[in-house]
Design a protein that fits this description.
Helix content: 25-40%
Oligomer: single chain
Distance between the termini: 9 Å
Number of domains: 3
Shape: globular
CATH class of the largest domain: Alpha Beta
Strand order of the largest sheet: 7-6-15-16-17-14-18
Structural class: alpha/beta
Length: 433
């Protein structure tokens, strides 16, 4: 039997993981990556002694297999941290998660949140019409009103009644009644939730992970973009002018992009691709000409008057990422077609808002700026999501395309999940050999 030809589109974590696992099985492959470097969004850049990631990236291990793999690859360059995250609320900082740290709130608001929670904590509903209903029935009116609804509306850029709960899967911490009551009585430093602890490279930035994953891979071709996918001919046309045929295609490119490069889709499938929605993330990294005076990892900002939803302090996780005597921040602003961003003003607005919340005292503190405008941030789980996504991914699978990873499979997932998804894709391909 002739060997089947496997092509992988995209050298982000999922594509590299798929190739790594295929190579372990001695299955040949070719990776085509449109950028001039590997890693996808899991990249870092060095500028004047600062190392900036392409937005905030932390590793949260829930799968023993992935932890063992990453640990074997990074060795001593993988360090565990206990989360030190906060929420900016009424000009004060309270511990994250909000729902378990009501003690830090103004007394009137704390009572409103606790009373509302105690009214609903015994709810036994298991199906909710939308994400907003889930919030209200899980946490009560006060917590919903003061944090959950404003923060998530700001992040997702849509009214929460238009979102389903299909993406939750443990991403929002749900405390016990005892934890909520205790957190309303006193400060409770103990953390919980899926990101209560996290892992990050000791040095080099998050780019160290795709770098070690790619080390030893035999056929990774950068600067090669897929311009067209002919599903009938099983053929890819590349930006270089060349063409490649395939028996099996592993695609990690964003699902909406496939609609633009795969011609002659059936009308019903094309409609599904068109209905996919997402938010985008404007990531603004800055270097500061002084040391930070705190050890916080990141802060959430639910206030809609502030343009950003989160600010992180990567130098508090790895001091090697900044020159001696300096510090850095990454700032995240969400936007979408439904809530567009004025990119002419956004940097000015960010600097203004950083000053208003006392994260900088004057613009002169900023000695370096770096921008990553990320078009595909998070798939939006609106009421059309499930049918549209399943129809699009199912059609591709029927035509020899395994669409996987965060953007290929169009799911909200962590870096660990992306690595796991690449492994699953390789396992599926392995059954053909």
């Amino acid at each position: 039997m002739a060997k089947k030809k496997v092509i992988i589109l995209g050298a982000g974590l999922t594509g590299l993981s798929a190739a790594w696992h295929l190579q372990k099985r001695s299955i040949p492959y070719i990776i085509f990556e449109k950028e001039r470097s590997i890693g996808g969004l899991c990249r870092s850049k060095k500028i004047d002694g600062f190392t900036f990631d392409c937005d905030g990236h932390m590793l949260h291990f829930r799968h023993r297999y992935v932890f063992n793999l990453v640990k074997s690859l990074l060795g001593d360059n993988l360090v565990k941290h206990e989360r030190n995250a906060w929420i900016h609320f009424y000009d004060r900082l309270i511990r994250y998660p909000f729902q378990a740290n009501l003690f830090g709130l103004p007394s009137r608001i704390a009572r409103e949140c606790l009373t509302g929670y105690l009214k609903v904590h015994k709810n036994k509903l298991y199906e909710y019409a939308n994400f907003e209903d889930w919030i209200k029935f899980t946490f009560g009116y006060g917590i919903a009103k003061h944090f959950m609804i404003p923060y998530n509306s700001k992040f997702w850029t849509l009214p929460l009644k238009e979102l389903t709960c299909d993406w939750l899967a443990g991403f929002i911490p749900i405390p016990t009644r005892e934890q909520v009551v205790l957190g309303a009585k006193r400060d409770v430093p103990k953390q919980f939730g899926y990101n209560a602890s996290f892992w990050y490279p000791r040095s080099g930035g998050i780019n160290e992970l795709p770098k070690v994953l790619a080390c030893g891979l035999k056929d990774v071709r950068i600067g090669c973009r897929a311009k067209r996918i002919d599903l009938k001919k099983k053929e890819i046309s590349l930006s270089s002018g060349g063409k490649e045929t395939f028996d099996c295609l592993i695609s990690t490119i964003p699902l909406p992009e496939v609609w633009h490069i795969a011609p002659d889709l059936p009308a019903s499938v094309a409609v599904s691709f068109k209905k996919l929605k997402w938010n985008s993330i404007f990531n603004f990294n800055i270097g500061l000409n002084h040391c930070g005076n705190h050890n916080r990892h990141w802060i959430y900002f639910p206030d809609n008057k502030l343009c950003f939803f989160r600010v992180g302090f990567i130098n508090n996780i790895s001091s090697s990422l900044v020159p001696r005597g300096k510090s850095s921040m990454y700032i995240e602003v969400a936007y979408s077609r439904e809530r567009p961003l004025d990119k002419r003003k956004i940097i000015t607005n960010i600097i203004r808002d950083l000053k208003s919340v006392n994260l900088i005292s004057c613009p002169d503190e900023v000695c370096l700026q770096d921008i990553n405008d990320i078009e595909y941030g998070y798939p939006i789980y609106d009421l059309f999501y499930k049918h549209s996504r399943d129809n699009a991914v199912g059609f591709l699978r029927e035509n020899g395309v395994i669409s996987c990873g965060r953007y290929g499979s169009w799911r909200y997932m962590s870096m660990e999940d992306a690595i796991q998804d690449g492994r699953r894709a390789a396992d599926e391909v392995g059954k053909l050999f």
